[in-house]
Amino acid sequence: xxxxxxxxxxxxxxxxRWLHVIVxxxxxxxxxxxxxxxxxxxxxxxxxxxAKGIGGELWAVHGGxxxxxxxxLLAPKQLPSELHWFKxxxxxxxxxxxxxxxxxxxxxxxxxxxxxxxAALPPAQAVAIGxxxxxxxxxxxxxxxxxxxxRSQLAFAAVYTVFVAAMAYALNHWLSGRAxxxxxxxxxxxxxxxxxxxxxxxxxxxxxxAMARGETPDPIHGKRGxxxxxxxxxxxxxxxxxxxxxxxxxxxxxxxxxxxxxLIMLAAVLIRHFFNLRHKGELAWRYPAAGSAILLxxxxxxxxxxxPQATSPVAMAPTLAQVRPILAARCLACxxxxxxxxxxxxxxxxxxxxxxxxxxxxRIHTQVVQLHxxxxxxxxxxxxxxxxxxxxxxxxxxxx
Length: 400
Ligand code: HEC
Hints:
Strand 2 (60-62) and strand 3 (65-67) form a beta hairpin. This protein folds into two domains: 10-38 and 88-302, no CATH class; 314-395, no CATH class. It has helices at residues 5-40, 47-52, 88-104, 109-112, 123-148, 153-174, 177-212, 219-244, 249-252, 257-279, 286-302, 320-330, 354-359, 361-370, 384-395; strands spanning 54-57, 60-62, 65-67, 70-72. With 400 residues, the chain is mostly helical. The relative contact order is 0.08. The two termini are 40 Å apart. The strands form two sheets. Strands 1-4 form a two-stranded antiparallel sheet. The protein has a two-stranded antiparallel sheet with strand order 2-3. Helix 3 runs antiparallel to helix 7 and helix 14 packs across helix 15. It binds heme C. The site of heme C has 24 residues, from helix 12 and helix 14. Residues 111, 246-247, 327, 330-331, 333-335, 341-342, 346-347, 349, 363-364, 367-368, 374-376, 379-380, 382 line the site of heme C.
C-alpha cells in the first residue's frame, strides 16, 4: 500500500504537538516552581545557616518526603560537585514549537497564513513576515532589557507593551487572524527561550567559573538572570493563551482582534501578578478582579451580533438543495470523508451528507457567516453572495 504523504505529515504533527505540550509543561512547571520558591523563602533563624550565607529557606512536604530548599545570598563558598541546570526544558519547547509552526503553518502558508480579505500576500512573503516577527521581537525586547536593567521595571513593562501592541496590530493586518495570534505568542516565547540561551545560562556559567577560580561572582549576572526570568514568568500565561487561541475563532476573527488579544494578555499578566504576590503572603484581590473584568468585557465585546431576522418569508428561504452545491464547491475539499486538501477532515467535521450538514448547521453558520473563519484562508474562494444565501437558509430554520 502506498503511504500518503499528507497522512505522514499528520502523524508527524501529532508527535510534535504532543512533545511540545510535554516539554512546555516541564519548562513552565519549573518556572512556576522556582518563582514560587523564591517568593516563599523566609530568612533563616538558625545562626549556623546565616553564617553559611543562606538568605532564605523553606520547608515543604511532597510525595511523602520532606524538603528543605535553601537559597544562598550570593553563592556557596564551595562549588558542589553536582549541580542541576534547567535549560533543556526551554530549548526543547522552542525547538518542537518551531518545528510544529513550520510543518503546520510555513509549509501550508497559502491556507493557514494568508487571508486575501486582509492582504493578498504570496505565501512566501507571509512566511517571511512570520519569521521576521520572531527575530525582530527578540532584538527589540533584548535592547529594551539592556536599556532598563538599572531603571524601573514598570517603565520597561509599559514600553514593551506598546511594542507588543504594535506587533499585534501589524501582524493582524498582514496575516490571517489565527497566524497573527500564533505569531504574537511565538514571538514572546522565542524571547523567553532566547533569555535562557543568551543570558540566564551564560550568566550562570560565568558565576560558576568565577567560583571555580575561587573568586566571588559578579552580582550583575544574578541581577540580569533575575530580570529575565521574572519577565519569562509574566509572559507564560499570555503565551499559553496565544497557543490555544486557534481553537477559538471568535477571538481572532474580529475586526479589532489585535486589541482583543492585547486585552486578554493584559488580563493574564494581572492574574499572574496576583499569584506572585500571594507567594509572598499578600492577597491582592484587585488584580484578579481587574483581570476577570477585562476578560468578561472582551467576551461581551466579541460576541457575534444577534442573529438578524430573516429578510424573506420562510416560504422563499433558500433550501438545502441550494446550499449543498455551495458546500460541495467551497468546503468538501477539506470537510469530507476523503478530503483532497487535508489528510483528514479537520475538527472531525464531515459535510458529505444532508444529515451531516443539518446536524452542523449552527457550527457552519458561526464559522462561515458570523466569523468569516471558514473556508480556511478562503482558499476555495467563497463569495459574499454564497455566505448570504447560507445565512438566509440558516435564519429561516435550516430546513432540509
Ligand atoms: C482548506 C481547508 C478548509 C476548507 C476549504 C474549509 N475548512 Fe473548515 N476547517 C478547516 C480546518 C483546518 C479546521 C480546524 C480549525 C481549528 O483547528 O480550529 C476547520 C474547522 C471548521 C469548523 C469547526 C470549527 C469548530 O471548532 O467548531 C467548521 C464548522 C468548519 N470548518 C466549517 C467549514 C465550512 C462550512 C466550510 C465551507 C464553507 C469550510 N469549513 C471550509 C479547514 C477547511
